[in-house]
Amino acid sequence: MRSTVLLMAALAAGPVLASEPADVPTRHALALYGAPALPADFEHFAYVNPDAPVGGTLTRSANGSFDSTNPFIVQGTPAAGLAAIYDTLMVQNPDEPFTMYGLLAQGIRLDPDRKWIEFDLAPEARFHDGEPVTAEDVIFSFETLTKRGQPFYAAYYADVSDVRAVDEDTVHFDLADSESRELPLILGQLPILPAHYWEGRDFERPTRDALLGSGPYRIAQVDPGRRIVYERVADYWGHDLPVNRGRHNIARLAFDYYRDQTVALEAFKAGNLDMRIESSARNWATAYDFPAADDGFVELLEVPDGQPAGMQAYVMNIRRNTFQDVRVREALNLAFDFEWLNQNLFYGAYQRTHSYFENSEMAAQGLPGEDELALLEPHRDALPEAVFDEPLPIEQPQDMRARLRKALGLLHAAGYENAEDGTLVDTETGEPLTLEVLLYDTQFERVVQPLLRNLSRLGVQGDIRIVDVNQYLNRLRRFDFDIVVGGFPQSANPGNEQRDFWGSEYADAPQSRNLIGLESPAVDDLVDALIAADTREALDTAAQALDRVLRWGFYVIPQWHLGSTRLAVWDKFGWREPFPEYNLDLDAWWVEPERAAEIEARQRNR
User: What whole-number distance in Å separates Cα of residue 185 and Cα of residue 491?
Assistant: First the structure.
C-alpha cells in the first residue's frame, strides 16, 4: 500500500528525471568521447602565449558586399567577423577532437542518461553595456534563433524539448529521446544575445547598427558594403578566463570588402591588407614574388588541417527536372576532367575528392561491412543496387574519350538523343539539355570552362552566369540555380548539422544548406543514426553508410581538396607552434610592435 501511495505522489508531482540536478556533479568541460584533456584548474590552452602583447591591427579582405550586422537571420547579407562580439556558453579547444570548456557557463551538469543539461552562468558575465548575462538571455537566444533565425538553428537544436530558468544564473535544457550524443556539447555553441537590447526591435529585419554583445570585441565602425571594424573591449568580463588567456590580443580587427579577388591580392601586396587566405593554386605558385616578399617582410605559411576535407563540388539542384535522373547526374560527373585541371591550372597542388568525409575514417571504402549493411538493408528497395554490390571508390574510365562515350550512353538511356547538329535533345519534347553554372567570382570561370567544353562534346548546352555576391546569395536562398560551386564542410565529429545538409524537412526551407534538394527517407534515417551514435565506431559506421548512399546518388560533381590552409601574412604577427591539431585559431595571434613599426616605416618611405 505504501508503494502505491508513493507512486501516486510521484505521478502527481510530474515526470521523474533519471537523475536530479542536485545529484549530478558540476563539471568544467564536456568531451564527446572520453574525458576532457585539461583539468578544471588549467591555466590556458597549450598553443597560446599568455604573455602576448596587446595592440595593433589585423586587416583582412572580405568578398563582395554586406548590408547587415545581424548574422543570424534569413534576410540580408551579414558582415564578416560578427562572431567576435558574442560569447557562447562554452568554447572548443582546437587541440582536442571535440571538447567544450566553459565560457559564459562556469559550471555544467549533464544527466548521465543525457536527458537534460544545466549551465551555471558566471555571475560576473556582462554585456558591453554593463548589464548582467542571465538565464533569461539564454532562453531568449535559444527561442529567438530557433524560431526566427536561419533554418540552421532549428535543425541544429531540433532535439531540445524545453528550456527554462532554474534561477537567475542557471538554465536547464530538456533533451528529447533522440540519443544525440553531441547535443549537450553543441548547446554550448549557442551565441547569447541580450534580451533587453532586442526588446522593441525587429530581430528579423536587417540592420546596420552596432549590435550589443558580451564578447571580446565590439563593433567600432560600419561602412556598409565597404568596411567593418571591431575594437577589443578593454574591460571585457572574460579576459582572464582560462579559455581566453593569451587570446584576443589584437586591438582592432578590420575587414575591407572587394568585389574582385585580383584587386584584393594587389591590396595585400601594397600593404593595405595584413593577411590573405589563398584559395588559388596559381596565385600561391606565382603571385607572391614581389619586392616586400623578397625582402623578408611577407611570410607564406601552409598550416596542416586536422579536420576531414569535406566536400567541395559542383552541386546539382535536383529540384530542377534536368537533374532528377541519376543517369544524367552520373554523365555530368564523367565529363569532369580533374587530372587536366590539376596539371594545367593548379600546378599539381590538389588531390581529387571522392568522399563527403574525405581524409578521415568516416569515408566509405570497398563494399559495405556487416555493421553498415545493418543500417542500409531496411532501405534496400529505395537505394541503387550499386550501394550494396559495387565497391568504393566508384570505378570509372580514366581516358576522357572513354568517359565521354560512357556519359553519352547514360544520357541516351535517360531519354535524350543527338539532333542532326549534335545538340542533345529530349526524345519526347525535343527540348535541348541546357544547364547554367552560377558564380560570383570571376576567378572560377576558367575552372568551369573545361567542364562546359566537355559537355558541349556530348551536345549539352552549358553556360556560366556571374552575378554579384548579393544576387548570388539571394538566388541560393530561393534555390534559383541549376549548378553552383558549393561546400559541405565536415568536422571530426559530425552531428546535427547533417540534417541541414541532407534532411528532407530542409529541402525547401529558404537559406537551408540542403542545396541539392534531397528528400530521401533513407538518407534521413542514416542521418538520425549518425546523430544517435554512442561510440566512435558507431559514428564512423553511420557516416560511412551515409557517404556511400550520397556518392552513388551522384548528386554533386566532386572537385578537389588540400590538406592545409595557405596563409600569406605581413611579417608583423606572432604565434606559437605547433599550431592546434584540429583547427587554426587566429585569436591566439598577436602583433609584434617593433616589427609592425618597421613595416609601417617601410611603407611610408616607398
Answer: 14
Can you tell me the mean pLDDT for 593-605? Answer: 91
Give tens-digit pLDDT for 533-571. 989 999 999 999 999 999 999 999 999 999 899 999 999
86 is written with which cell numbers? Answer: 558574442
Q: Is 293 strand, coil or helix?
A: helix
Q: Strand 252-258 vs strand 57-63: parallel, antiparallel, or unpaired? A: parallel
CA angle 123, 126, 128 (to 5 degrees): 175
Greatest C-alpha distance within the chain: 94
- Secondary structure letter of residue 218 according to DSSP: E
Distance between CA atoms of 472 and 437, rounded to whole angstroms? Answer: 11
Tens of pLDDT, residue by residue over 115-168, are 999 999 999 999 999 999 999 999 999 999 999 999 999 999 999 999 999 999
Determine the Cα–Cα distance for residues 325 and 318; give it in Å rounded to an integer: 9
Cα angle, residue 348 at apex, residues 347 and 351 outer, rounded to 5°: 140
Rounded Cα distance between 388 and 385, Å, is: 6
pLDDT of 18 reads 55
Q: What are the angstrom distances between the C-alpha of 280 and each of 255, 257, 407, 437, 566?
A: 20, 18, 30, 19, 9
Q: What's the CA gap between 82 and 72, in Å, rounded?
A: 10
Which residues lie below 8 Å from residue 374, measured CB to CB, with a gap of 6+? none
Report helix, strand or coil for 461.
Answer: strand
Q: How far apart are CA 218 and CA 83, in angstroms?
A: 10
Strand partners, 173: 117, 163
Cis, peptide link before residue 393, omega less than 30° from 0: yes
Q: Give the pTM.
A: 0.89
Here the cell at position 71 is 548574422
Among candidate residues 292, 289, 129, the one with its CA nearest the CA of residue 213: 129
Question: Helices marked H in 172-251 — which ranges?
Answer: 183-187, 195-198
**Cα–Cα dist 205/202, whole Å:** 6
DSSP classification of residue 45: -
Q: What local confidence, expressed as pLDDT, does residue 178 receive?
A: 63
**Angle, CA of 74, 76 and 80, to the nearest 5°:** 105
DSSP letter string, 86-132: --BSEEE-TTSSSEEEESSEEEEEE-TTSSEEEEEEPTT-B-TTSPB
442-481 pLDDT, tens digit per residue, is 889 999 999 999 999 999 999 999 999 889 999 999 999 9
Burial (CB count within 10 angstroms: exposed 0-12, middle 13-18, buried 19+), residue 321 = exposed
Q: What is residue 283's DSSP assignment?
A: H
